[in-house]
Amino acid sequence: MAAKDPLIIRDRDEMRKWSRSMRAQGSSIGLVPTMGYLHEGHLSLIKEAQKHADLIVVSIYVNPGQFSPNEDLSTYPSNFEGDIEKLRSVHGGVDVVFNPFNLYDYGVYEGGETMKKGEEEKGEKVISCVESSKFGHETWIRVENLEKGLCGKSRPIFFRGVATVVVKLFNIVEPDVAVFGKKDYQQWRIIRRMVLCWISKEIESSYCNQVRDLDFGIKIIGSELVREHDGLAMSSRNVHLSPQEREKALSISRSLYEAKKAAENGERDCTKLRNYVAQTIQKAGGKVDYDEIVDQESLESVEVIQSPVVFCIAALFGNVRLIDNMEINV
């Protein structure tokens, strides 16, 4: 099959017009949101989306709203041409790449002037922090409880930025289906909660499909975490690891596998499991940001495993912060 060249759309109105035109013709649309620098994990999301929709839109946008003032947006890896080549290699292809320059109202910016329509095409630098009083963006989406723990503890505005940009993408692309990777487990649960209200398992699933926090008519799909051949969770950040750091970082996935095996063999004490994983990572030279065993849906910490949980880890090797997780269903 010949490689398929995706249509590249940068304008919001053009993106919305395309989606509405395709849906009017009876086609369903699947959205895969990304920040670019694509790898096999991203491509697996596209393949999953193809199972649920006729046409596929991949957004490539490094979202400044999720970067705090002390995080440098400019260091996030980027290779747009390489991304397009990877998308061309996907069997069945991608129909549209939505690659806007900016999705925020910056109001007054450098030089004291207001950003005018068309200036986004000049390559003006987008600043990481959209919190400054000189910027115009004021409206944020928050998922109050799910955003507090895990990554939310050390990155307090991160999920506010994620939820907000996802809502923007939903409003622009107007998809029927959106696919998110479960490597970013907390993010996936936050998006599900935002779109589809969590309800206890006792309530019929058909009713669950009718109750939404924000009433989006979008099906949210969680795609399984993809790993490198050696077990390291795929991430755009892996490129920043030195060969030595990468080898040491394998302690994350290896210790998670051992913890899962221990739980399946009867060890249900979360303190023991957490201590084992933390000590393994620390002995390998990593610094643990958090290691928590939480309920798969509420993300509340548990002390004894009695229902499906997920073991979530964030750790630093060198200056690279890595996240990983493993579901434990016992």
TrEMBL record:
Query: SUPFAM superfamilies of this UniProt entry?
Result: Nucleotidylyl transferase
EC annotation from Swiss-Prot or TrEMBL:
6.3.2.1
* Species: Lithospermum erythrorhizon (Purple gromwell)
Q: Which reaction does it catalyse?
A: (R)-pantoate + beta-alanine + ATP = (R)-pantothenate + AMP + diphosphate + H(+)
One GO cellular component this record assigns the protein to is: cytosol
**Name of the featured protein:** Pantoate--beta-alanine ligase
Q: Which domain of life is it from?
A: Eukaryota
Q: According to the UniProt entry, where is the signal peptide?
A: none
